[in-house]
Design brief:
The chain is mainly α and about 100 residues long. It is built from three helices and no strands. It has a domain of about 60 residues.
Length: about 100
């Protein structure tokens, strides 16, 4: 049986925006930290400053990641607020039907 009272589905996937946010935030976490670890160890081995460059680059990558994640999330929140403003509000009485 088909329930005819259900609203029609839109063609887009509902999980796609969430996966986009997840992948973008994950990228800002992983890439700077991994690059800092690789180049920090490489530069420490080259210049003989065992933990110094490694720790500085790791700290800088952590701060960079924090700022980029903040701006990414802020951007998506602004997009959601814009969508919410453009979407018309449906009155409660029209959802209940004729009484």
């Amino acid at each position: 049986m088909v329930d005819n009272n259900l609203p029609p589905r839109n063609n887009g996937s509902s999980w796609a925006p969430a996966m986009q946010i997840f992948s973008e935030v994950s990228t800002w976490i992983v890439v700077p930290i991994v690059l800092a670890l690789i180049f920090g160890k490489m530069l420490d081995a080259r210049y003989g400053t065992k933990p110094t460059i490694f720790l500085i680059l790791t700290g800088a990558a952590f701060l960079f990641s924090c700022f980029k994640i903040f701006y990414t999330v802020k951007n998506y929140v602004n997009k959601l607020q814009d969508i919410e403003k453009k979407t018309p509000i449906v009155e409660q009485s029209s959802l209940r039907g004729k009484e």
